[in-house]
């Protein structure tokens, strides 16, 4: 175990940790189990219901595996040493090792892995990587040639299917290549143009989804696969949008290129598309604002209250119960459509009959879901 190699690997990790784990770039939500002790103590695994809460995180954590306890100790010491020298690179590090030994390699040596360093690839792996890059270049060339951005629409079912398939292939290829340092800065297409293509991709996703719902046909797009989950991996969050809005404000609302960038970023995002009008209305009124972030939070709170009050009045819902229901939805990260909670917010049924309670419930659920999607993760 060469001390020089350990030092270089440690330095690389500290220098690239934020990039590889998307720290300070994107936020994600995940479900946190809040009653861990009760669930763990439930021997029958059926008596205790799991209670989960939605939580926001920035980026991911990381696991660094090495071949032995001795190697782990050496790396741990080196991490501590380099972080003392560069406090701005400091990470929270925990050392974990098991008592079970790794199986021995035939030659008695366990090779260290460094997949992002392409110089260490064997010939077979390098051929594979070069083929992947070549395929990616061909896909981008095809996209730019067959579907130029100066053509506003993609006409015809066959052309739409080809475009959907092509973007899906590019998303899958980028998901493979993004882990290699050599790919950064060599994407062959600007971020703004790619967001423009993703916006069109999402427009087609919505169009095909609506077409299926209107025709009541389940197999209308069986041969169409939308890689929405891969888009979410390059998701643009509200913090990035507000950063652009602040720059636009600082330009005294004169930099119209920033408005175009904001529009394209929103349209490319699965999460922000439902919030488009909310963001655009905010931008339209920021001329006299002192602090964009403070004003945004106030604006969202005001708009959320107006929208909720409108639903309560239109559907004649029980006000206090509805507000408690919505607070629970934002706490849990989802609108619960089963159980008795949703029934408690509905208006009382007339003793003389009349009206369809099931239809009323479905209408209320749809409105509350749309409300939730519009205001989730932006406050």
Helix/strand layout:
Layout: H1 3-21, E1 27-33, H2 36-41, E2 52-58, H3 69-85, H4 123-146, H5 157-177, H6 191-215, H7 228-233, H8 238-250, H9 256-267, H10 276-284, H11 292-315, H12 319-332, H13 341-344, H14 357-375
Antiparallel strand pairs: 1-2
Q: Pairing-aware structural class of the strands and helices?
A: mainly alpha
Which sequence of strands runs across the widest sheet? Answer: 1-2
- Kindly report the average pLDDT value: 79
| DSSP helix fraction | 55-70%
Low-confidence stretches: 99-103, 106-116
The major beta sheet can be summarized as: 2 strands, antiparallel
Please indicate the count of domains: 4
Radius of gyration: 26 Å
Order of helices and strands: HEHEHHHHHHHHHHHH
Task: Write the CATH architecture name of the largest domain.
Answer: Up-down Bundle
- Give the DSSP E fraction (strand runs of 2 or more residues): under 5%
CATH class of the largest domain equals: Mainly Alpha
What features would you highlight for this structure?
56% helix, 379 residues
